[in-house]
Amino acid sequence: xxxHQPTRILVLGGGGREHALAWKLAQEPGGNEVVVAPGSAxxxxxxxxxxxxxxxxxxxxxxxVARAASVELVVVGPEAPLSVGVADALSAAGIPVxxxxxAAAALETSKAFCHEIAEAAxxxxxxxxxxxxxxxxxxxxxxxxxAADGAGIVLKADGLAAGKGVIVCDAIDQALxxxxxxxxxxxxxxxALVIEERLHGREASVIAICDGTRAVALPVARDHKxxxxxxxxxxxxxxxxxxxxxxxxDAAIERVLETVHRPIxxxxxxxxxxxxxxxxxxxxxxxxxxxxLECNVRLGDPEAQVxxxxxxxxxxxxxxxxARGALPASVPDRLPELPGAAVGIVxxxxxxxxxxxxGDPIGGLDAAEATGALAFHAGTIARPTPPGGFGTNGGRVxxxxxxxxxxxxxxxxAEGAADxxxxxxxxxxxxxxxxxxxxxxxxxxxx
Length: 447
Known about the structure:
By secondary structure, the protein is of the alpha+beta class. The protein is 29% helix and 26% strand. It is built from 14 helices and 22 strands. It is globular, with a radius of gyration of 21 Å.
C-alpha cells in the first residue's frame, strides 16, 4: 500500500498542540486546507488554515463538520473528545480518523486500566494499587505497605486531570492526609485513585504513530511538569520541553518500542480494541532501565510543539495510512528527523495551574517571532482593534520554540523569544533544557 496525501484535513482542538499540528499539516505538499474545530484566532492566521466554531466534544457536530468540509482525514488533538467517543462516531460515518476509540482511549482516561493492560502485556510499571471510591481504608493500607518498604508515594487521580491530577508526596503523612480527597464522593466499586511507588530518574516521552499493529516513533522529547525552576512547585500540564534526548539513543528507543508500545498494541488487539492513534509512553529512566509512568492517547503538549518542527517529512500521509490500519512496510520504525534541536518554553497566566486570570494584554509577540522562534498559541484571544493583538485566555497561554544546531543554540533562541514577551503576572521557567544529561553510553562501551 502506498502513502496518499490527504488534501483536506480536520483537526479537533484549539490549544498549542493543535496550533502546532495545523502549522505542520498546512505546509505539507499536496494539502489544500486544514480545518480546525474550534481552533483560535491565532491558528486561523496560519496559511491554508480555517477555523470553525464547532464543539469537538459533540460527536454528531464533529461528523457534520467533517462531511461539510469534505475532509479525507480527521486528526483528534486532545484527549477529551476521544473519551466521549468522537473517533467511534467518525468511524461509524465512514470518515477516516486518527485517534483511538473510546474503549482504547481508556489507556489514558483510566490509570487503573493502563496498569491492567501493562501488567497483561508484560510492560514494566511501578508497584501500584487501584483504590475504589470510598475505600479510604484500602488507600491507607497500601500507603503504609509502601512506606514500610521505604518507598516514596505518588497519588494519581484515576480519570482525566489535564496533567494535574498527580501528587508526589514528600512523606507518608502527606499521602495519608491527601488520599481520602481522591476517593471520597466517588462511586463505590469504580477506580478513583491509583497509588504508586515513586520511581527515580529523568523522564522521557516516546510517542508513536500506531495503526493497530505497528508503532512508528516520532522524535523523542522531554517535558517539565513542575511550575517552577528546579522542578519545584505544583504539577502542571507541562511548562516546557526539548528534543532530542542525549540520554535516549537509537538503540534505547527501539527497545522502548519493543518492550512498551508493541506489547500494549498486541494486548489491546487481543481484547478486540485495536489502537489507532498517537500512543504516548511517558517513561522514567531508572537505574534499572526505563519504566512506564503513564500512557496518553494523543500527542503530548508541550512535546508536540518541539517534536513536529523536527520531522523531516510529511506527517499527514502517515496519519491517514494509520487511520486505515495499514502503515506500509516501507515506513521505518523511526521517522526521519531534521538535524539540530528544538526547545519550547511555556508562558502561563497568573494563577495557573489553579484559576488562571484572563484578559491580560500580551506584549512582545512580534519581537519574539523576530528572533526566529515559533510561537504556538494555547490560551489566547484576539483583542478588538484598536489596540488589537492578543490577550490571555487560559492557563498555558503560549509556547515559544527555538530551533538550532544543538540544544544550547535552540535554548538561546527560545529564551530570547520568552524574554521578549510580557504581560501582567506571566509565569515561566528559566531552566528548560539547561541541565541536559550526558549522551547515553552504547552497550558494550566503557564510560
